[in-house]
Write a structure and sequence with these properties.
Number of helices of chain B: 22
Shape of chain B: globular
Number of helices of chain A: 13
CATH superfamily of the largest domain in chain A: Transmembrane di-heme cytochromes, Chain C
Strand order of the largest sheet of chain B: 2-1-3-4
Oligomer: heterodimer
Order of helices and strands of chain A: HHHHHHHHHHHHH
Number of strands of chain B: 8
Helix content of chain B: 40-55%
Strand content of chain B: 5-15%
Order of helices and strands of chain B: HHHHHHHHHHHEHHEHEHEHEHEHHEHHEH
Shape of chain A: elongated
Structural class of chain B: mainly alpha
Number of domains of chain A: 2
Strand content of chain A: under 5%
CATH topology of the largest domain in chain A: Fumarate Reductase Cytochrome B subunit
Chain lengths: 291, 537
Amino acid sequence: MGIAALVVFYSSAVFLVAASFFAFKKYLAAPVHLHWELYRGSSAYELSDWWTKKPRSLGNKLWTAGLDVLFLRDYYRRNRSFWYFLETFHLGIYSLILWHVWLFGRAAAGPVVAEPVGSLVWGHSAFALALVGSVGILVKRITDADMRAFYPPIHFVKWVFLILALGGGFYAVQFHFAGSMSGALAYVREQLAFNLAAKLHAPAATSAHLLLAAPWLVYFPFSHIMKLGFRYYHFFRWDDVPNVRGGLIEKKIGQALGKRVSWAAPHIQSGRTWAEVATQIPGETPGSETK
Amino acid sequence: MNKKRTKIADISRGREDQLLEIPPGELSALPCPYEKGEGSAPVPAIPEQHKEKYDFSLDGVSALGLPKNPSPEEQDRLVEGFLSGLRKLLSKDDNWTFWQQLVLSLEACTHCQTCNDACPIYTASGKQEIYRPTYRAEVLRSIVNRYLKKSGRAFPKLMGCDIELNWTTVARLAELSFRCTMCRRCASWCPMGSDNGLITHELRKLFSQEMGIAAKELHAQGSVRQLEVGASTGLRPKAFKGIVEFMEEEIEAKTGRATKLPVDREGADILFLHNSGEFLSWLENPIAFAIILEAAGKSWTLSSELAGYEATNYGVWYDDVQFARVALKQIEVARKLGVKKIVVGECGHAHKALTVIADRILTGENNFPRESFLPLLEDLVCNEKIKLDPGKNDFPVVLHDPCNMVRLMGIVEPQRRIIRKICPKFREMEPHGVDNYCCGGGSGFAIMQSLNFPEWKSSVSGRMKMKQILDSFQDVIRPEINKYVCAPCSNCKGQIRDILAVHHAWEKCRIFYGGLAELVVNAMVDMKEPFITWEWR
């Protein structure tokens, strides 16, 4: 059990880092795309010479994105009954992540003598929020015909597995460590010290928790919440940055127009670059004046 | 309502039966004087000669006129072409234009179905499963997962992608890409930013750019014709010049002043670009703009060059290459004339296409200033640069918001400030602004007239707009009072004309329609006679 849990957990951790890196790289390396915006109100296009107006600042965009990710504000506006469970779940998960960061940080900082005040309540509250949220989401997904429509069966499995993982963590803290955070911290400190004997002979409760948690490390880079963050990136929302002559956007467009067109329909006349295909109309002699 | 659920996999099955037949009475209700309902099917029965020839297997409607029974070899070739196009859609190099939005839209959907009730077609149709914004997106997602990803091949049922890709799937999906107006209200509603309108766009693109399948009104009679003869309406430069002469006569008759309209005037401040449909169907709109611009003493011009008198760009609805070709032609005309900027007239999709979307294909000298007519008109009206008497517009007016101007471009307030200034009986539709409903003619529907598609778009895609118009005029619905639906977009105007005509709303309720510039000229102090003549056309 010990060695299996170790292999699975550390492999998952490595996967999390690598997959997150490639996920970011995938979007950072995306080519410039056509300007396909949505607006929630007035924009610079209401003004004459709109290209001279200052666009939104990056800070403003990040602030909006942060609030959306934290509070899932569009679910609140558009799908309130789902939001109650979704937000409860996400607050629980965010809180659990922070709790684990604290757990590892505190364990690494040095030996724990006294029981840390409030840490057990924090952990259990986060667990309770995540559990109530995830059970609520699962029940809603099963009972609501609209929410069930097109929902792939694998996702039902996902929620059941998540509830098990949450339960595993709660069991380890509350029963294996008997609700003693100093005990849990001592255990984590031992693990962080890479004491091989301790690692290979880890208790069943903590090993089981690692095994149940490991798939979530693998899943995280592909999770929807990551996509929610990405939607704000790279001029995807509220992009009023004009393409000015000689600017960075124009440079990127120039690169994209140099790509070869491969589409097969006859009117495309592929095999040339986008710049050539877009300026040479089928039936026209290249370079000829239009009549 | 206990309705049979159409599953994703059903799209591949039962080619001889329609996937959907909308039962009579399921369409959403309309208010007074239509509260008793039509009691008929949303589309008439298909004539036998059409039934044998064309594919109606989606919902009994054909927008594309696809053949009913291609040979097995042809079916294989088409399915292979579809898969090939799908691979290109998901390639950064082949589809740099929309790769990022497409991939995010495919990956981000949580299947929460929040977007469904935002869709006017889904709700007006009585919530038919295949009209959910998510249905076509999910079909595409399932094909991608099943045929292009290893996990889907191994566990199709578990991964929710047990779909079969055959000619039935491809043919129905092609039709289904023309049951969405790409108004993107669903995208605006989506908490995750998944854009089902964009998925419709990408599907249409795949069919056009890879397989050569497109609605003939958009391609052969649309962008191809525009590039060949100058306008998607078929209007040629010589005929255009004749129309301008007629406009001058009309202006003289209406204002009492002889006017020479500027055509191909080099070095003017503004090249004014109208939808050529205005010159053929609603000439009063370009006439109204000409009267306003002349009265304000603006330096402006029209162009008689090929593509210079046509603002439309149908490529924006189905084909990136055609879109780029048209946009570059329009820019070329402006450059050659040496004007300072292009101002787009009352055409919603032209606003979005030339001003916003084209912003990411223009480089160097083609990166040319372009903007909406609305800031200009607002300046002239609200800063009283022309003399206006709001009392002349003493009739109820409601504003229709073209999706391309509001939700897709963020031009929300100038049109309202103008109307509030000149129309004392202005009222809003609910909802309006960025939350508006599409007229039902978006993404080319307004001009598509194939087979029984016009009946479908009048009774289903335009139904929500009809309801909104009627709701806004309920306090004055009796036919003794003339009412005006202001639609500052040529295609919206065409669709609103069609839905009002189908419901005989002019005869029953005296609901009329027209543009914004006409309201401004109607209020001009200098006009001796009313500019708006209330003659149905």
